[in-house]
Amino acid sequence: MNEKRIALVTGAMGGIGTAICHKLKDDGYLVLATHRPGKETAAQEWLQAESFTAEEVAPLALDVCGTQACAQALKEVMEKYGRVDVLVNNAGLTRDTTFKRMTFEQWDEVINTNLNSLFNVTQPIFKTMCEQGSGRIINITSINGLKGQFGQANYAAAKAGMIGFTKSLALESARSGVTVNAVAPGYTATPMVSALKDEVLESIKGQIPQRRLATPEEIAKSISYLASDDAGFITGETLNINGGQYMH
Ligand code: CAA
After folding, report:
1. Which of 140, 148, 158, 188 has CA 20 to 30 A from 11's CA?
2. How many independent structural domains does the chain possess?
3. What tens digit of pLDDT does each residue of 24-66 get?
4. The whole model's pTM is what?
5. For this structure, is 246 an active site residue?
6. Residue to mutate, 96, 107, 215, ligand 1, most ligand atoms under 8 Å from C-beta
C-alpha cells in the first residue's frame, strides 16, 4: 500500500493541470495524472518534459466521458492505492462559437467533457471518501460560468453547472469530513487561452483590471490550499481568481 497521500487530477497534461500536478507533488502527494486513452506516448513525453518521477506522478488513462470506463478504472485505483485523498476535476475543453451557429455536437461534447465527467469521475471516489471520513474534492470551473461569455453558451452552461454540483455535494458530504469546493480561474496563460484570436485576447485583457492573465501557478496554489488540512472548514465555496474581472 502506498504511504503517500493520493491526489487524482483529471486533464492533468493541460496548462492548469500541469501546474496543479507540480504543486501537489511538491506538497508530498502521489499524483495520479489522468489523460485520454490513446495518449500514452504523449503522457510519457509529458512526464519526461516535466521531470516527474514514477514516485511523484503516475499517469492514468481515463475517459472522463465514459461512465462505465470510469467506474472500472477508479475501482482499480481503489484496489491499488486503497484511497484517494484529493480529487481535482480539471478536465475540460472549449468549442467556442455563437449559439446561432453551434451544432448539437459542439454543445454535447462540452457538456459531456466538462459536466457529465463530474458524475463519472466523482461518484466512485466520493463514496469511498465518505466511508474513509476525509477527502477533498476541487472542481475547476471558470469565470465564464459565473458571468457568461459571448461564444460560450455550452462552456458557460457546463461551468455554471459545476458550481451547483459543488454546493450540493458539499451539503451531502459535510458530516463525513469531506469538503467540496470550486475554483473559478479567470483568463489564464495556457494553450486554451493562447488559441484565441489576437484581437479577441487583447480585448479580453482590456477587461481585466490587473491588465494581465493569471499564471497557472497562481491557480494551482489555491488548489493546494483547498486540499490542505487548514481549509477544513471551507466547503461549498467558489474561489474566484480573476484579477478583478468579475466580482460577485
Ligand atoms: N460581445 C458582443 N458582441 C461581440 C462580442 C462580445 N463579447 N464578441 C464578438 N462580438 C460580435 C462581433 O463584433 C461581430 O459583430 P459583427 O458581425 O456585427 O461585426 C460578431 O459578434 C462576430 O464576432 P467574431 O468576428 O469574433 O465572430 P467569429 O465567428 O469569428 O468568432 C467567437 C466568434 C469564436 C465566439 C469569438 O468571438 C471568440 O473567440 N470569442 C471569445 C470566446 C472566449 O472568450 N473564449 C474563452 C476561451 S478560454 C476559456 O474558456 C478558459 C476560461 O475558462 C476563461
Report:
1. 148
2. 1
3. 999 999 999 999 999 999 999 999 999 999 999 999 999 999 9
4. 0.97
5. no
6. 96
